[in-house]
Amino acid sequence: MGRGVLTPPPHKHPSIDGRAADPSHREGNRGAATPHRKASAVASTNTVVRPGSTKSRTSRWAPTARKLTPYAFLSPTVIVMLVLMLIPVIMVIGYSFMDNVITNKNPVFVGIDNYVEVLSDPVFRTATGNTLFFTLVSVAAHLLLGLGFAMLLNSPLVGNVTKALFRVVYILPWLFTVAIIAVLWRLMLNPNGVVNYLLISLGLTDKGIEWLSSPDTALLAVTFINIWAGYSFYMVTLLAGLQGVPADLYEAARVDGASAFQRFWNVTLPQLKPIIISMSVLDIIWTSQQFALIWMTTGGGPVNVTEMLSTYTYKLAFSRYEFSVASASAVLILLLTMVLAFFYVRHQKARD
Amino acid sequence: MTTFAQKQSPAVRTTPDGARRSPAQKPRRRPKERLAKVVIIVLLLTGAAFAAFPIIWMASSSFKPNTEIFAYPPQLITSNFSFDAYITILTDPAKVRFFINSYVVSLAVTALTLLVAILASYAFSRYEFKGKRPINMIIVSIQAVPPITLLIPFFGLMVVLGLYNTYQGLILTYLVFTLPYAIIMMTGYFNTLPKELDEAARMDGAGPLTVLWRILVPISIPGIVSVGVYTFMIAWNEYLFALTLTRTEDMRTVPIGIQLLMGQNSYEWNEMMAMSILGCIPVLILFLFFQRYFIGGMTAGAVKS
């Protein structure tokens, strides 16, 4: 982490020499010792170590105080995360092996029954398939649209003001909350709505299509809405990435006589690859968890064609009040996501 | 501007010796370049229509009487243009309440997140300590925990703690989603600040808290603004937990309020669109004022400098 561009020059680092790293390191400089002791005495009042009284004691306690300081700074975060993350995760795993949690005061242990019930439910399998389709198509389209728009906005042929203007317009969909996006597209995709009007005017269809309530089109429609809502994130990030590609790489490729397409394929893409990978993994994680958009457009219908893992689990818990079975489903989703997160963390580490 | 053009434009750079020998080439290149420019502009406009038309339609519908929403043929600007839908919403205390709730929750979440994240990021950026890497790793992976997994235990927990259907319950919940991101981004920002700054202050006898609040925080305002804006947006837009952890209409936030309008028998489309416009105004304003920070926030996750 500490390898930012502006970290101190290397000659200040030798203090990390095998011993427990100590933030105060003024190699061989005796004069600096006093202020450091003072600093750590202040630190000790923050970490409730023990008020240093005599000089010798302060210096004996100083290393301990310094060691405890970072933990003191981290303690609010750790408390929040323990109470609101670790405990709930343990709770949901516990629930998933019980029966009648929350609704019943005395739940009984039922082993893996809930998991068997979820995994043998055909709707769960449909939901998994839908989530997979929704996620993969969305992510692929986000990437293509985002990259396309970013390349357009990075073109040297267009003026900077024009580019800034278009950039704002392209970011717009990203500024709207999913609830608003859902309502807006319900209006647009209504059988009498403006999308159908445009399609009829262009002669692409002869009567209004019930995009969100016909089993043939509902999944495509929600996927399309999600594509519209999410490409901006890629565009902005890829644009930043494009502007970071060293110009002399293109220069060199041009000297070698590479065509525009070759320059894109051999210079741009390899340079953007790390960004593309981490963004895609993040997007897969987020998109596979999408709930509000589905819930407010189709509610998972008609006849489960847009049922996702998130809506399926929500219905189990809050429509059918089968909290135990829902917990089993929630744990399965957690496991799937953890696999993805593992790849993300490993990729990020490789980039560090 | 000129250096930029020299680096990028092939027309200028094709003569390596720098002599103005290009007149012979220029006429050949120019039309090609002009064609490319036309193609790019056309593509840009198509993209803009794709991105903006739904939003223009939302605005346009919010000014229509509800009977004209599905008029045939559709009209972008109706002759019966009116602010009625906005007036209906802004004069209904129950609906104004949604906005108040959203502001209270989002502002509290933003303030708390910033406070806790700044403290944690200071430790990550300026100290070496046992467990730093594992804790950092946990914070990164927590971002991936699906909200739906936490929903059921949170529901149980909030009922037990008596926080069901309260502001505090929602605020605490949102912290889980905003903190990891805020810490990662804030740590990244602190890492860009030279350590000599705080070392100098420490030489003068300042304690770590003093260094943090007097030295680091004042020069980190841009970073703090990006984290704050992003945090506000996450809280303002949250839907799933707001839906599940509140029950009475006076505790609902804007996203749920929009859905409640939809739940009634006849759809008041114009009111729904007006409420959507009102609901996105805070985010739009934040975006327009802090565009640079905003984009910094969006790219922080994936682009590393």
UniProtKB/TrEMBL annotation, chain B:
Endpoints of the signal sequence: none
Coiled coil: none
Chief subcellular location: membrane
Transmembrane segments: 35-57, 103-125, 137-164, 170-190, 211-236, 272-290
Oxidoreductase as UniProt keyword: no
Subcellular location: Cell membrane
Keyword entries, A-Z: Cell membrane, Membrane, Transmembrane, Transmembrane helix, Transport
Chain intervals with Polar residues compositional bias: 1-12
GO cellular component terms, A-Z: plasma membrane
Mode of membrane association: Multi-pass membrane protein
Domain ABC transmembrane type-1 intervals: 99-290
Region of interest: Disordered: 1-31
CDD domains membership: TM_PBP2
A Pfam match: BPD_transp_1
Family the UniProt entry places it in: Belongs to the binding-protein-dependent transport system permease family.
Name this protein carries in UniProt: Carbohydrate ABC transporter membrane protein 2, CUT1 family
Source species: Agreia pratensis
